[in-house]
Design a protein that fits this description.
The chain contains 4 helices and 5 strands, in the order αββαβαββα. By secondary structure, it is of the alpha+beta class. It has a single domain, classed as Cytidine Deaminase, domain 2 (3-Layer(aba) Sandwich). A 5-stranded mixed beta sheet has the order 2-1-3-4-5.
Amino acid sequence: MENKELYRRAVEAMKNSYAPFSKFTVGAVLLTKDGKLFTGVNVENSSFGGTICAERTAYVKAVSEGFREFDRIAIACNEGAAWPCGICRQFMYEFGSDLKVITGDDEENLKMMTLQELLPEGFKL
């Protein structure tokens, strides 16, 4: 799947975001190494600590279905490019630092970095 299509799907997923407090809506699409897609959105909570990001939502769905090897993740938000937050970077690092992370202001202006570039010294047991 091309990066543009993956990003389009992240934009589509973003419509299901639940962000009543920040209004910062995010959608993510995670592509496994064997071609399966998992979507995720940010889900806010009034306790704030209970909020989960779109990237982790997609990962939790994939891992709960038995997937552990990932190729790319595309992230879209209503504010333009959205790189993963620190918690998400470390969370994703657990499953491999070679993951390609795609985001941009729109599908014509995409940027891509590996997770290793975003988190050069991630923690791993």
